[in-house]
Design brief:
The complex is a heterodimer of chains A (373) and B (421). Helix content of chain A is 40%, strand content 14%. Chain A has helices at 8-11, 14-17, 28-35, 54-62, 77-87, 100-111, 127-134, 152-158, 181-191, 215-218, 249-256, 266-277, 279-304, 324-333, 357-372, and strands at 41-42, 94-97, 117-121, 138-142, 163-169, 196-200, 225-230, 243-246, 308-309, 315-319, 336-337, 339-340, 349-353. Chain A starts with 7 loop residues before the first helix and ends with a helix. In chain A, the strands form three sheets. A seven-stranded mixed beta sheet of chain A has the order 2-8-7-6-5-3-4, sandwiched between helices. In chain A, strands 9-10-13-12 form a four-stranded antiparallel beta sheet. The N and C termini of chain B lie far apart (48 Å). By secondary structure, chain B is of the alpha+beta class. Chain B has a seven-stranded mixed beta sheet with strand order 6-7-8-9-10-12-11, with helices on both faces. In chain B, strands 1-2-3-5-4 form a five-stranded antiparallel beta sheet, covered by helices on one side. Chain B has a five-stranded mixed beta sheet with strand order 15-16-17-19-18. The chains are: A alpha/beta (373), B alpha+beta (421).
């Protein structure tokens, strides 16, 4: 018996009707087949080419398969203890999520209601904007300043009585620009606790600039400050999906009301705990790799006459004299997967992950090739 | 235009209720600010469909009517049980014989198709939908707009009504017939943007003089852009307009954009060439990670070569008619550009009579003086692939591919005299 199809035009809220689903890229085996390339070097997601730290690898290998039958710790109990020791806060100052994307959703759900808005920029990590919009809240996009950094004055000017959250990606993905401690403090002082300020430090472990602020310390002074971190980038646990937020207990307690518990699996929790054990060596090795890659690639791009935006983080943005989406397809044919940047509102730019030198050499060769063919 | 202006009606398909349907259409369309003549045309189209259905369907069947304010047009959608209506009657080639009673009955449907500016037919979940669209009438540009001396300081401004009207006047003055004809109706351009179907970027100086801009029509996945139009002596505004346009399209449902017959102001390095003569520029707005293209074996090689040249990841899946049941009638839509003597055909329904009907379309269009006849074949719709032999037989030759121009890619074929098999 056939049943009537539900009336989607009346069942689906108008703000959802306007949104198209995000379609992630296909798995590597399918892409290899479709683009006809034997291997794919992933330089599109800012993954750490060195992989997880040795301790994390040990932890992953040590996972007893039988434990797959048992629910994980619902609130990442042990990991929160370790984070508390590492950063000098109480365990209840942390919420662990299924990747930092999940904690973005927790925060927006906790603070926003109909008619509210959040503030972010036009050229930054897209998830703040997406989550706000598919939740029915306005995302106010403040243009980046001419130096590709966040424009603090314009962000302050965009705040109104219905602004609940301001998102600052520090360092910014994809431009690698950052606010130093003085500038961040100044911004927090001027917000003066009226809004929640989220500082997304997903790439902070890659930064070696001495004036880079540590949000984990600043949150002691600023009760409206929340800090996001992830294990996906520096700690190379992207496949396990684990990240966290930190803030003063009273604020975190509010956010916890919107959390989906049990969303972080046991393997991710164990690997994250282990990552913290040898973090210092792993961070140094990775920074060395990124620094070599950046030096090499900048020299090659200068030789090719291509301009670029190179700041902090394990990525660079390159301006091309052609459509970035065409460049994406041409590079895919050569097995090099980059991020085309029209979607970041940077037409004719690509973002590449800085990885090992042999792969950077392949990228440089492929770029030279697509510019001449 | 606000969704809340929609008028919906559900009624039994019985002749006694016809005045409710036509009255609803007539009054809704006038309430949307359109003239009585346009309202009557739409009401007549609905009357013909309603009468035809009421005479042929059981009394428990219903018709759902939706009137929608499109800003610069009004649309009426009729939804009713599938297969209740012969779609072939809507073809531009339909004729009526006074000898044949059934044919006479279809005359009303033919009239319905002729009274409106656009017609669409689709079927989904056991329901057929007919869309009738009537455009609003606008006055054309009345007088030449004065040139202005540029002092620089151009910045992006909100595309408000008066600025859009000024933009349209300046585009008409500078580009004339090179620009699409809608620019000669400034009020229409303002309404096209206000209703959300079109987007606009305008760069104006401190005195409110519009120095450059672009316009684009938002399709399902494809945007068709117009411009950049540079209306002062500052050529660098072309890049600013184009980049602003691309930034506005980013993170929307749009997958790609196309610019037909670009002006000399188009900056280099942003587009791919689709047609060999440079008349079609194309650009994707996001990463293309592949799809399946359905094609008749006759066109498989053309598509594979084209995809290779465009670096597009596609799996070309051959499709042939292998005796399975087809609808008896086909229907093709014809989008006409009479000043350019250009017409584009698309398939809305593929049936057994496709080959003969296609030949009839070509003959009729040639008789009407069209010199350029294109067929846009949607490779994302498997049943359209079956039109391959009919297209070849009618003289259509594959020319180029418009990626994501339909549900999948569009294979653009052009009619060549003497190529008919």
């Amino acid at each position: 018996m056939s049943h009537p199809f539900p009336p989607l035009d009346t069942l689906v809220p108008s703000h959802i009707q306007k949104i198209e689903p995000y379609i992630p890229s296909k798995p590597d085996d399918v892409l290899r087949q479709m683009f006809g390339c034997p291997v794919i070097y992933r330089l599109n997601n800012n993954e750490n080419a060195l992989g997880p730290s040795p301790k994390a690898i040990e932890a992953i290998q040590a996972m007893d398969p039988v434990q797959a039958a048992v629910y994980p710790s619902g609130d990442a109990y042990h990991l929160r203890q370790k984070l508390a020791e590492r950063f000098g806060h109480s365990p209840d100052s942390f919420i662990v999520g299924n990747g930092a994307n999940e904690v973005i959703a927790f925060v927006i759900k906790a603070f926003c209601q109909e008619g509210d808005n959040i503030i972010t920029t036009d050229k930054t990590f897209a998830v703040y904007e997406w989550v706000a919009e598919f939740s029915g809240y306005e995302a106010r996009l403040v243009p980046l300043a001419a130096d590709f950094g966040y424009d603090d004055e314009a962000m302050l000017a965009a705040i109104d009585a219905r602004t609940k959250i301001v998102f600052i990606c520090n360092p910014n993905n994809p431009t690698g620009t950052y606010w130093n401690e003085t500038r961040l403090r100044n911004f927090l002082d001027r917000v003066d606790g009226r809004q929640i300020v989220v500082v997304d430090e997903a790439y902070s472990e890659f930064v070696d600039a001495p004036d880079f602020p540590n949000g984990m310390d600043l949150m002691r002074e600023y009760p409206n400050l929340l800090v996001f971190r992830t294990f996906s980038k520096m700690f190379a646990l992207a496949a396990l999906r684990i990240g966290f937020l930190a803030g003063q207990e009273k604020i975190v307690d509010v956010i916890r009301r919107t959390c989906v518990v049990y969303s972080v699996n046991s393997l991710a929790q164990q690997a994250a705990i282990a990552s913290l054990l040898d973090a210092e060596e792993h961070v140094l090795r990775t920074r060395r790799m990124v620094s070599e890659a950046r030096g090499f690639l900048e020299a090659e791009l200068n030789r090719l006459g291509l301009s670029y935006i190179s700041g902090q983080g394990n990525y660079m943005v390159i301006r091309l004299p052609m459509s970035d989406t065409l460049a994406y397809r041409k590079l895919m044919r050569k097995g090099i997967m980059v991020r085309s940047m029209t979607g970041f509102r940077f037409p004719n730019h690509i973002r590449v992950t800085l990885g090992t030198l042999p792969v950077m050499e392949k990228l440089a060769e492929a770029l030279k090739n697509i510019l001449t063919v | 235009m606000p969704h809340r202006q929609n008028i919906e009606l559900s009624m039994p398909l019985q002749a006694a209720f016809l005045p409710i349907a036509t009255g609803c259409v007539e009054q809704s369309v006038q309430a949307y600010g359109m003239g009585r003549a346009e309202a009557m045309h739409l009401a007549l189209a609905v009357e013909e469909v309603y009468s035809f259905l009421a005479a042929r369907t059981s009394t428990d069947q219903r018709l759902k009517l939706l009137c929608r304010n499109g800003g610069y047009y009004a649309e009426v959608v009729c939804r009713f049980p599938q297969h209740a209506l012969p779609v072939g009657a809507f073809n531009i080639t339909s004729t009526v014989s006074s000898e044949d009673e059934e044919s006479l009955a279809e005359m009303g449907l033919l009239l319905a198709a002729r009274t409106v500016d656009q017609l669409g037919i689709s079927a989904e979940n056991g329901e057929m939908k007919i869309h009738f669209v009537k455009n609003k009438n606008y006055p054309s540009v009345r007088e030449q707009i004065a040139d202005f001396v540029s002092q620089g300081g151009f910045r992006e401004v909100e595309p408000e009504t008066e600025l859009l009207k000024q933009f349209a006047c300046r585009v008409t003055a500078k580009y004339g017939a090179q620009a699409p004809s809608f620019f000669t109706f400034p009020g229409k351009v303002a309404d096209m943007v206000a209703c959300g179907e079109y987007g606009a970027v305008l760069l104006a100086d401190g005195k409110g003089n519009v120095g450059a801009g672009m316009l684009w029509r938002r399709g399902h996945k494809l945007a068709e852009a117009f411009g950049p139009y540079i209306l002062c002596d500052q050529a660098q505004l072309a890049i600013r307009s184009l980049e602003a346009c691309l930034q506005k399209m980013a993170r929307t449902s749009l997958v790609c954009m196309v610019v037909q017959d670009p002006t000399p102001d188009m900056p280099p390095g942003y587009f791919e060439l689709l047609a060999q003569d440079g008349s079609v520029l194309y650009r994707q707005l996001e990463e293309d990670n592949g799809t399946t293209s359905y094609a008749h074996p006759e066109f498989v090689d053309f598509l594979r070569t084209g995809y290779q040249q465009l670096y597009l990841p596609r799996e070309v899946h051959p499709v042939e008619h292998q005796g399975e049941n087809l609808s008896p009638c086909s229907a093709f839509a014809a989008q006409m550009n009479r000043p350019a003597r250009r017409v584009t055909l698309t398939a809305i329904w593929v049936g057994k009579d496709a080959a003969a009907l296609l030949l009839e379309h070509v003959r009729a269009l040639k008789q009407e003086g069209f010199t350029e006849i294109q067929f846009h074949l949607d490779t994302g719709v498997a049943e359209q692939a079956m039109l391959g032999p009919a297209l070849s037989a009618a003289g259509f030759i594959p020319q180029w591919i418009l990626p994501w121009g339909g549900r999948g890619d569009l294979l653009v074929l052009t009619y060549r005299e003497g190529e008919a098999l």
